[in-house]
């Protein structure tokens, strides 16, 4: 089981999608419970990643308080342990 975090992705060029495909496609079929978390300020980057790993869900966050971040992290850890 893997949690891969790619934080603050900003590159946006035509060739970037094939670059990310090479990296993410093998990871997209990881073991049950594995997750890929990508953060970016650009909708187009989020859509590119969603296409590459064949997921339609994009979560747009307005920002979390520190206690909310810790709660989210703890929830993810509990899911992974179970």
TrEMBL record:
Domain NB-ARC positions: 2-75
Domain of life from the UniProt record: Eukaryota
Signal sequence interval, chain numbering: none
A GO term, aspect molecular function: ADP binding
UniProt cross-references to InterPro entries, sorted A to Z: NB-ARC (IPR002182), P-loop_NTPase (IPR027417)
Protein name listed in UniProt: NB-ARC domain-containing protein
